[in-house]
Design goal:
CATH class of the largest domain in chain A: Alpha Beta
Mean pLDDT of chain A: 89
Distance between the termini of chain A: 33 Å
Number of strands of chain B: 2
Number of strands of chain A: 9
Number of helices of chain B: 4
Largest interface: A-B, 102 and 86 residues
Structural class of chain A: alpha+beta
Number of domains of chain A: 2
Oligomer: heterodimer
Mean pLDDT of chain B: 50
Shape of chain B: flat
Shape of chain A: elongated
Structural class of chain B: mainly alpha
Low-confidence stretches of chain A: 1-9
Number of helices of chain A: 7
Distance between the termini of chain B: 19 Å
Strand content of chain A: 25-35%
CATH topology of the largest domain in chain A: Alpha-Beta Plaits
Low-confidence stretches of chain B: 1-10, 46-59, 76-138
Order of helices and strands of chain B: HEHHHE
Helix content of chain B: 25-40%
Largest sheet of chain A: 5 strands, antiparallel
Chain lengths: 259, 138
């Protein structure tokens, strides 16, 4: 182990990478499923629950984008077979025994309960964003103070009008915030009846209206997707809606409660 | 409803990216999922770097200046400036390199001091903090 950089160097220390928790009776790993570094994914079972894990070299260069992609692929695959509780990206424990003694055994009931509650559901992420030029035009047109400050500052050296620029930006931010709240409510009120749970994050920057995760039951998925199609059509001149999913329930397993 | 379009229905106004591109998944998966007790796990691979850099916090004055700048360049506007995902991808590439390579070390030792506690501080504009609730159906 003198040379520490190489992956899979024979003799290097190995650990167990943990992807997620599944129910033992529902766990089906497709032949040849591989995860980080192309290592095989296998199950470590304990009574009703099992962890999907793989081997990993402890001295590998960490956190590459390929790792993130490999992790999501494994979880996507697990989610196709049945409910899965994702374990936070990058979780490595010393060996398989620790998976049983420290992760699974103390929480069989909690995992079992959580997995049952996630049965037949998938996560979708919805992001609504304004078209930047459009929303700024709205704001300038609707607010006289903004329009005036803009006229007074736009052809000037920014350093010479910095206080006015800060004020302009503050007013624009406030104006967009007001629109954002209104537009978010308009969309979310229509989506809510179709979802089992939600996590809403406030929009960031100029364009983002909101970023939300929804837990959607499989038999309402078609209706949910149709609704969003028609909502997207309805708002498309001002906003773009982006829907990602189905995904494993990353936002609905209560991350920090388990620490 | 503000239906302003007379174009075809279900005509693909809803963007459905394949959730395989990193820019699309990074915000979705980072910091999500259950956390294994710190004393048990060897480490969270490189996650600190990815997390911190992907959520650049901009002080409010700088945010305002950016808003002002965007407003003032309205006329010159050409659409197509999708800078955030590109930025995240760039960061991710670099976050992967050297910086964290010391992170995987002693067994039964948590290297990542505070990786899971203070992520929330890094979120700008978090006024209606992530709230979660069960909805009461239709």
């Amino acid at each position: 182990m003198t040379d520490r950089a190489r992956i899979d160097e024979p003799g290097g220390e190995r650990g167990t990478y943990v992807y997620g928790i599944v129910r033992t009776d529902r766990a089906r790993l497709p032949e040849g499923l591989v995860g980080l570094d192309g290592t095989q994914v296998r199950l470590v079972e304990h009574q009703r629950v099992a962890a999907a894990v793989g081997d990993i070299a402890l001295d590998r260069p960490p956190g590459r984008r390929a790792d993130l992609v490999a992790y999501t692929k494994v979880l996507d695959t697990l989610a196709e077979a049945g409910p899965v509780v994702p374990v936070r990206f990058g979780s490595v424990v010393p060996d398989d025994d620790v998976v049983v003694t420290d992760l699974l055994a103390p929480r069989v009931d909690r995992f079992d309960e959580l997995l049952s509650s996630l049965e037949g559901q998938a996560q979708f992420n919805l992001r609504a964003s304004y078209h930047e030029a459009g929303i700024l035009q709205e704001v300038v047109a609707e607010n006289r103070e903004i329009a005036e400050l803009r006229e007074r500052t736009r052809e000037r050296d920014p350093d010479s009008v910095r206080p006015q620029l800060v004020r302009l930006g503050e007013l624009v931010a406030q104006a967009i915030e007001g629109k954002r709240d209104h537009d978010a409510v308009f969309i979310l009120d229509q989506v809510r009846p179709l979802v089992a749970a939600e996590v809403i994050r406030a929009g960031k920057g100029v364009e983002q209206v909101f970023d939300a995760s929804f837990l959607v039951e499989d038999d309402r998925r078609a209706e949910f997707e149709e609704l969003l199609e028609s909502l997207a059509e309805g708002v498309h001149e001002r906003m773009g809606l982006q829907l990602t999913g189905p995904l494993p329930p990353y936002d609905f397993v209560g991350s920090d409660a388990w620490d | 409803m503000t239906v302003t379009s007379s174009q075809q229905r279900g005509g693909g106004y809803l963007s459905r990216p394949a959730p395989s591109g990193l820019a699309d998944v990074i915000e979705i998966i980072l910091d999500k999922g259950i956390v294994i007790d710190a004393y048990v796990r060897v480490s969270l691979i490189g996650i600190e770097i990815l997390t911190i850099d992907a959520r650049i916090v901009i002080a409010s004055v700088d945010t305002y200046l950016r808003f002002a700048e965007a407003t003032n360049r309205l006329d010159l506007y050409e659409k197509g400036g999708k800078d955030l995902p590109e930025m995240i991808e760039g960061i991710t590439e670099s976050g992967a390199s050297g910086k964290t390579s010391g992170a995987l070390k002693g067994v039964k030792k948590a290297i990542s001091g505070g990786s899971s506690d203070d992520d929330d501080d890094a979120r700008p504009a978090k006024k209606s903090a992530s709230r979660s609730r069960r909805s009461q159906g239709s």
